[in-house]
Amino acid sequence: MTTTWLIVGLGNPGPRYAATRHNIGQMVVDELADRRGERFREHKAGARVVETRLRPGGDRMVLAKPNSYMNTSGTPVAALARFYSVEPGNVIVVHDELDIPFDSIRMKIGGGHGGHNGVRDIARTLTTPDFLRVRAGIGRPPGRQDPADWVLAPFGSVELKTLPIFISDAADAVEQLVDDGLLAAQQRHHSR
């Protein structure tokens, strides 16, 4: 019996935001689609999706990028969860995290939103915070820079050197989360 997973990469739509820190979640699901040679298509839920499998005959993965802005991510996520009959425990949200250093990955299920408006809105529309999160660390802004400006800025030149490896590692974490469960994925990826 296979399971269906809804894997959502958070970000903001359009080319203006594509390369920003806030869009790392979408970069990770792009990597997952690229690994399978798949292209995103429009879905009536207000998102772009790829329907694929972890491996032939393996669990089904619905990769999704909401067309909405970050603060209203919940509506398309809840609509996709209903459409594909995915319970909140099988929803994986990949998002940026200010309180984790750049190039670090942390995973958890449930908990608070930590000020992340996309996570807050998803918890509201799913009516539970008990979904899986793959938190891609972007670190805090230097000095007194406003965090809102920091997350909407492109990655710096030093970060860009390791960004492809970071995105690949986060995609590996998602795959292991689906394949082996939360504890095994945490043990491998939290210690690197």
From TrEMBL:
It holds the Pfam family Pept_tRNA_hydro. Its EC number is 3.1.1.29. GO terms for cellular component: cytoplasm. GO terms for molecular function: peptidyl-tRNA hydrolase activity; tRNA binding. Keywords: Cytoplasm, Hydrolase, RNA-binding, tRNA-binding. The record marks 12 as: Discriminates between blocked and unblocked aminoacyl-tRNA. Belongs to the PTH family. NCBIfam families: pth. This is Peptidyl-tRNA hydrolase. It comes from Microbacterium esteraromaticum. The gene is pth.
